[in-house]
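Re: your question from the hallway

Yes, I did run it. Sequences:
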Amino acid sequence: MTDTASARMAVLAAEGGITTPLGFRSAALHSGIKTSDLDLVILAADVTATAAALFTSNLVKAAPVVLSQEHLRRTGGRVRAIVVNSGCANACTGDDGMRDARSMATMAADAIGCPAEEVLVASTGVIGVALDMPAIASGIATAARALTRGQGSSAARAIMTTDRFPKEGTVTVRTERGSFTIGGMAKGAGMIEPCMATMLGFLFTDAVVDPPLLHRALQDTAQQTFNAITVDGDSSTNDSLVALASGASGITVDEAIYPALVEGMVALSRELATAIVRGGEGATKLVAVTVSGAPGHSEAQTVARTIANSLLVKTAVHGGDPNWGRILAAAGRAGVVFDPARAMVRVGGTLLFENGLPHDDASPQAAEHLQGETIAIDVDLGFSPGASATIWTCDLSAEYVRINGEYRT
Amino acid sequence: MTDTASARMAVLAAEGGITTPLGFRSAALHSGIKTSDLDLVILAADVTATAAALFTSNLVKAAPVVLSQEHLRRTGGRVRAIVVNSGCANACTGDDGMRDARSMATMAADAIGCPAEEVLVASTGVIGVALDMPAIASGIATAARALTRGQGSSAARAIMTTDRFPKEGTVTVRTERGSFTIGGMAKGAGMIEPCMATMLGFLFTDAVVDPPLLHRALQDTAQQTFNAITVDGDSSTNDSLVALASGASGITVDEAIYPALVEGMVALSRELATAIVRGGEGATKLVAVTVSGAPGHSEAQTVARTIANSLLVKTAVHGGDPNWGRILAAAGRAGVVFDPARAMVRVGGTLLFENGLPHDDASPQAAEHLQGETIAIDVDLGFSPGASATIWTCDLSAEYVRINGEYRT
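Structure:
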């Protein structure tokens, strides 16, 4: 990972993962839900950690999401452990699914020695299929005895479904009071695999952060990172993003230190979130769509998201075609009022449209940029001073259609 | 075309087209905008017709759209002729584009002998390229001398861009006062080809209809037909739907006859609109997504549209996979509140999800249905009595990606 955060406060590290911060342990194993590969992980705090979480906004919520929301509500943001399985989403499984999710929490709580409501559950995999509970039960019992400190790289592998590579990293946050660490991992290829439902993200820190502040930091972070990626606009039934703070570093985050915490969480989450897009099924390019000169931030994000989700823009990027007409037409239907004659469109920094007219002479230069793997699309809506926002997406390839058309058949 | 309208009032005919109704003539020719094929057409009323039109809601509007809106505003809905070219959209062409659109109207008006503001202009083809005005000028002069009565099938061919087949038809509307005819034609493959911007539709009738009533009928019709199709959710800069009434049949449409007019326009427009989806680039299946049991009509349409635009649903249909999980997850993110436990999902009439649980035993029967070319997806949101709406879409194939990724390069 590269250092995209300001060197001033938050430094991303090439090494490390979810349990690099002090006060956490993990164990991952193959329980038998998948035919092979790691498929179950327990993440545990040495003592009860403060917690914040964001879950899918989809009305159709998987059982583990419903259960975890209930537990967080009851404890007011206190978590001792998280059990995660891959291979089965436990979504659309009715009352039996809720009972299974509850059993997972109880089994982990019993093995670790904490109240069941201090355990969160996350599942990812096929929708509409029941969990193999005997496999899960024996997996939880074994994993609870095997919890170890360290980077937690096997945890990052155990939560994968069709991910092409694990996504993990750490960031060290330096403050006047001393340093603390944030470790993170994520899985998913955006919403590219809804039946493998879908995005899971975890951010652990050894700072001391009370639940309300941690929740605010997680919202601020998600807004700029995990909620700013899209693969195909489909949001899943299981999306979960969880932050835990063990406090083991002894560094307390208050309002003065808060910006450093958010900077660190954002720096790490941006790496994890863009890695999800980069690793998307069928994806060959990471595309940053930045809209500036917008009347407000939410308008900028709406236009950027509409461009990022346009099939015609995504196929043009895939085909290496700097098609500013498709970009402008997508912006024009986003529902945000602007004057097309004052808009500008750039691809890879090359100006292609301005004052209502194309710069077709610049097209070859923009086409050259589209041969790369990291693409920049910039649209200025012409308001001054205007707000801006970036959404990350990927190109749309025939491979995507093949994967999602052939899956399950 | 089959008779989908009630036999009581409106009867669809297998033969006939845009100028089958009395009082209209047309001429189509190859002017040179395209390298070959018909690319220019004049549609003319014998005397000034009443008119109504709907145009793209995209902020980025092509010059012919802006000009036609201006002309209709000035005349209050009176039109003598329409000039249409394919091969060049005259969109994003700045002041020069407006001047060219205005010239087209003036040249046609001069040749026919009417005020320029009684001429509408429609263009479809590549965005950001200037019209070949010498070719257009000579084409308009020649076509204006060649106007003939009849079906107008060459007009339906002249407005095609990458359409695989022309789309035209007529409907005879029987009323107590006598019969009148509606002829129609359309082009476009949905929004599948935004650079070939995009949907044009024309409905001519020989009934006597005043402009406000014709406008209301066109809105009622579009709502159920042309505005209820989607290919990829991208709306173009040139979309135009125009209705003209010549009055030549002598049958006057008032409030008593209005339902028959709308029934006829809807029956014809449904055929034309679904033909657009069927003929979409890369499309192999026509999919009717019907949402019922919704709290209101607009909520039903919102959910149906979200399902119809879901890449994951469209790829699953393409792959023959009756993936109710993707359908339900798309419904869940549409922004309409419902209880997933009360929802039902059917594919080809086969119940796949009910009471929060799948009916996986029925999966083979639904998979069999997906082998066909006309697919029915039905979702009941569980409100009673509920509203319903249908959106027509197509499957998403690797061929779509290939076409839109390779276009222009």
